Amino acid sequence: MTPITEVEGRRLALSNLEKVLYPATGFTKGEVLHYYATTAEVLLPHLRDRPVSFLRYPDGHDGQVFFTKNVPPGTPGWVTTAEVPRVEGPARMVLVQDLASLMWAANLVTEFHTPQWVIGAPGEADRLVFDLDPGAPASVVECCEVALWLRERLAADGIEAYAKTSGSKGLHLTAAIRPAPSGRASDYARELAVRAERDLPRLAIHRMTRSLRPGKVFVDWSQNAARKTTAAPYTLRARPEPAVSAPVTWTEVEECRSPAALGFTAPDLPPRIQDHGDLLAPLLDPARAGTLP
């Protein structure tokens, strides 16, 4: 029988709680749900008012993995949804606004991905993001070098950047900006990525061409486009182990000397949150948003 639980007055059917989703550590679906329940206080503010795309992996990373952007069949009527404009026509997407919605979505076994804009102003970016993706043998260590370069350049333009792990091999840099057209944010991010390749020719590349990427860090500026999404802070990822896209301090970035130094899994996050709080909390403060030059 599927267990029924109540979350904030909403009845939820939680299924297959003993199912192992992360074979490298034996981490179960029940533990996934527990992780999201215990990190909801810091996760939800970064999801709220942003249409969520789900990367679902109901049988683990080595099973079927697929994106869901439209409202999934069977979504409860109390889950908030909104119409979202798209090039191919409007779609209705989920907004994860509260703990009950978060736990319903977590029961689908998903990564959470969000755009750089809120539902009230689609296509008006209030976030700037760089996805730093290393090409082997480069690793997150090289990503940290590029991140520090980007941090300085952004600061020179009055934009304060924050870092989080991707939950895979790389690093994400993100900053709060005063709302601006996504195209303008993309252009600015691309200019910085081009400068990074020029100033760090042995380390950084702004082009996606696979043959150019071994040993370098791809500075992916394209996720600033209105149609693109990025893995949300604190989301679990579809990996062999329960890897998390975890916020990190700039000291950790500066001192990173091995990939293991910035590899975080679900059990690591509660003590980190207790020690640091939400390291990305400044992104939620409009007064700290920078202005694109």
Automatic annotation (TrEMBL):
Annotated coiled-coil segments of the chain: none
Pfam families: LigD_Prim-Pol (PF21686)
Keyword Ligase: yes
One function term, GO molecular function aspect: ligase activity
Keywords for the protein's UniProt record, in alphabetical order: Ligase
Transmembrane parts of this sequence: none
UniProt xrefs under InterPro entries: LigD_pol_dom, MtLigD_Pol-like, NHEJ_LigD
DNA ligase D polymerase domain span: 28-279
Superkingdom to which the source organism belongs: Bacteria
NCBIfam families, sorted: ligD_pol
Protein name: DNA ligase
Organism: Streptomyces zinciresistens K42
